[in-house]
Amino acid sequence: MCGFRLARRLLVEEHQSENMRYEPAIALVITAVACSGHPSATGPSNVRTRLMVGTVTESIPTASTTVSAATITVLNGPDAGRSTTSDANGAFAMMVLPGELTVRVQAVNYLERLVPVSLKTQNRNVKVELDPVPQMVTIIRTNEIVVSDQTCPDYYEFFPPRRGDNCKANYVINVHHDGTLTADLTSGDELAGLFHLAVFQSSAGQPVGSPLPSEPHWRDATHGRLRVELPSRAQYVLQVNLLAPSLGAVSFDLTLSHPN
Question: Domains in the chain, please, with CATH?
């Protein structure tokens, strides 16, 4: 049984002493640890192994997105070279000898990250956030619809007021890397000059604050084109407003390009 009972008893003792809430993860590694040949608390070197559990997710602003099949590798110490992979929920678990470790985390389509982990005195829960590999994302939307009614602002208002759900369309943009957003709008109804474009910072998918600086300036961005420099690790909203009351349903096409 490769010392199954002894390994299970030691893990449960550590679990209780550290008040960790990772029973499923602990159960997964019991057999592997028992057969790994690591010294136990009663072994020759009298060294107790430590439990490292954690999750791998994307970085802000999509930190709720888990990363599966990531490889977690110990780079130094007695366990250098040992590795495991994250499951479908981004979770992983590994038993290692105590020490100050460096762990490398790798996943397809993400940038590698090195994470320091201190396991000298206790078990650790490690949260790792990975940036996706930088690239530009292009989205083409055709036959988008906004509905113009009596509540819509007209062309001569200083800035379209945010009232009601009509007269505008919002597009949420998640950005991990610095870069340039460009938006091009054309209207099948030949009304592109009546559309106003602006980019805002976002809170829970809704625009907040004033529009970001743009070319042309957001006050003049009424000809279907916009260019904005976006700082990294933030969520934004591109807002399309129709500056004409009571036109009914108006269609448009939108090409949006931005860093991921």
Answer: 4-130 (2.60.40.1120), 136-259 (2.60.120.380)
